[in-house]
Amino acid sequence: MNSGEPARPVEILLVEDNPGDVRLIQEALENEIRPNKLHVVSDGEEALDFIHRRGKYDNAPRPDLVLLDFSLPKDEGRRVLETIKREEDLRRIPVVVLTASTAENDVLRAYSLDANCYVTKPTDFGEFMAAIKAVGEFWLTIAVLPRD
């Protein structure tokens, strides 16, 4: 992109089943320096439909970044991560696992499935907001995201 063009918003897919966390994450990311568009789905099936552009998501943009709650019902977070990192045309999409779990086996499993980052959601409101803002700052202003 040349410096005269406005930056295309970063397409972020948030896979989160807790409406309160969704609201807080939206709030934390809305004032980022780099424009972003947050798309929200609440389960693994919807996430895979969005990523594969199926059903009601047939016109969905390809995500530049996925924020994935690993603790979805029926182990769906693991399945979403595994699918993204297994498929050649999706594997370059960075996936940040964003979860309440501090269990070492969850951390190991996420990284074994090639998660790009594992972030534990703090229970304290201020710490939660600071963590999400730090994730946003890194992935939206410091890291270079792959583009198609």
Structure description:
With about 150 residues, this protein is of the alpha/beta class. It has one domain: Rossmann fold, CATH 3.40.50. The chain is about 40% helix and about 15% strand. The protein has helices at about 20-30, 45-50, 75-85, 105-110, 125-140; strands at about 10-15, 35-40, 65-70, 95-100, 115-120. Helix 3 (about 75-85) links the parallel strand 3 and strand 4. The chain is globular. The model has no long low-confidence stretch (mean pLDDT about 90).
Record the strand order, biggest sheet: 2-1-3-4-5
**What is the CATH C-level name?**
Alpha Beta
DSSP helical segment count: 5
Question: Unreliable stretches, pLDDT < 50, 5 or more residues?
Answer: none
**End-to-end distance, in Å?**
13 Å
Sum up the overall morphology in one term.
Answer: globular
H and E string: EHEHEHEHEH
Number of strands: 5
The named CATH superfamily: Response regulator
Which CATH architecture is right?
3-Layer(aba) Sandwich
Helix content: 25-40%
CATH overall fold name:
Rossmann fold
Q: Which structural class best describes the helix and strand composition?
A: alpha/beta
Summarize the structure.
With 148 residues, this protein is an alpha/beta fold. It is built from five helices and five strands.
Key structural traits:
148 residues, alpha/beta, Rossmann fold, five-stranded parallel sheet
Draw up the topology in text:
Layout: E1 10-15, H1 19-29, E2 36-41, H2 44-52, E3 65-68, H3 76-86, E4 95-99, H4 104-112, E5 117-120, H5 125-142
